[in-house]
Amino acid sequence: MTALRRSELDFCPVLKELLQTRRGMTRSGDYAHTANISTPNNLITLRNLHLATGAKKTMEVGFGCAGSGLVFMQTHKDLGTLPQRQHLAIDPYQRAPWLDQIGLVAVEHAGLTEYLDLREEVSSLVLPNLVMAKARYDLAYIDGSHLFEDVFVDFYFVLRLLADQGIVLFDDCASPHISKVLRFIRANCASSLREFDLTPYRPAGGKSLKYRVARLLGRTQMVAFQKIGEPDRAWDSPFRNF
Fold first, then answer.
1. Could you say which of 21, 146, 179, 223 is the most buried, measured as most Cβ atoms within 10 Å of its Cβ?
2. Which domain holds residue 160?
3. What is the pLDDT of residues 116-144, one digit of tens each?
4. Number of structural domains, the chain?
């Protein structure tokens, strides 16, 4: 919890408390363990990246305990934008018994509800509808299901929702399911995406030995790509094994 001691999460007291106590209040008034919340380092990286890019519309697949959601919404507020539900989150399980709206309650306690557009269906249904509606997002975070097929479908549609120069981030990239999606992107999507270096946005500029080793080994927890072109390829485009 070094990042917490450096007070880099003071911008959102509700988020900081979730990370310090590792528990959050549910709708029924009980407390539940926030096991699935992102790490402080990831959340600080998201915060710094959002501040640096000034992203006007953000989205995430997976909402859970609202760790990353609180980062995005509070940053929208800190950037001086009026609340217009400009952060979209997809989570079909927010009202399930094991979550009991823990994320929604945290957002309410932080006073950020008007920044949130929560879609309570599976991402494979929500994302195509957003594409049909020609929605565009500047910053997207994929942290829902960790199965290869689900992550791949999320990626396919999120790429089509990204604005020009928009950035998509993947969490838990050491997972074999997610790392396989990343290998596909690196091998076959060079015309539409380029890998985006998150080092400058990490705590302490990514100077920790643990992070540097993980980066050398290609095992960083979070990986990002920036959109540089449309994903439309000719039907007979060459396929590169990954």
1. 223
2. 8-227
3. 999 999 999 999 999 999 999 999 999 99
4. 1
- What's the chain's average pLDDT? 94
Poorest-pLDDT segment among 43-47, 183-187, 201-205: 201-205
Three-state helix/strand/coil letters over the chain: CHHHHCCCCCCCHHHHHHHHHCEEECCCCCEEECCCCCCHHHHHHHHHHHHHHCCCCEEEECCCCCHHHHHHHHHHHHCCCCCCCCEEEECCCCCCCCCCCHHHHHHHHCCCHHHEEEECCCHHHHHHHHHHCCCCEEEEEECCCCCHHHHHHHHHHHHHHEEEEEEEEECCCCCHHHHHHHHHHHHHCCCCEEEECCHHHCHHHHCCHHHHHHHHCCCCCCEEEEECCCCCCCCCCCCCCC
Q: Is residue 240 part of a domain?
A: no
Structural domain includes residue 241? no
Entry pTM: 0.93
User: Quick check: is 242 in a domain?
Assistant: no
Residue-wise pLDDT for 152-200, tens only, equals: 999 999 999 999 999 999 999 999 999 999 999 999 999 999 999 999 9
Domain-located, residue 191? yes
Q: Residue 228: is its pLDDT beyond 60?
A: yes
